[in-house]
Amino acid sequence: xARTPRATPDTRLPHVAQDLPQxxxxxxxxxxxxxxxxxxxxxxxxxxxxxxGCGRCCLVKLEDEDTGKIHFTNVACTLFDATTCxxxxxxxxxxxxxxCVTLTPEAVRSIKWLPPTCAYRLVAEERDLYWWHPLVSGSxxxxxxxxxxVHGRVAASEDDVPFEQYPEFIVPWPGRIPKRAR
Length: 182
Ligand code: SF4
Ligand code: SF4
Prior knowledge:
three-stranded mixed beta sheet; alpha+beta; two-stranded antiparallel sheet; single chain; 10% strand; 182 residues; binds iron/sulfur cluster
């Protein structure tokens, strides 16, 4: 990265006014966290790091045929490991679960059911990550502490719930932001 040249003594005063903003701009750019970039500008590694591991998107969702409204349930996808809150076969998730959606910048902007806390949604909406995101806090534990993780809140796997019983598992919390998470 280029460094802003220092002013020579005879030009120092005029340059101070002009150069200080440039110095500030260069430093600000150097310190800008990657999650304040556009989704399209993230590297594959940064893209993966952006996921907070909450598991909310891996809950089964129901769409009201009449209104189009999406309802979260506390039933998890067949591949979801409720202990680790991770996909049990992330590399082959698309082959194993046909309706598992691979997020892309376009998908993030068009999907209406991403939780309001989802980091991809926040970045797409040009908002900052919350204090509890591991990239901000430095620890994955804060996702649970803030009440964002689905850990301990998954009632069943979709393997164990007959389709007609899904409405009994509708819950509001995956679509909400707890007070302590704000
Ligand atoms: S809701 Fe978003 S941040 Fe949370 S696990 Fe899913 S993709 Fe990751
Ligand atoms: S296949 Fe894996 S990533 Fe996809 S919804 Fe299921 S648990 Fe989540």
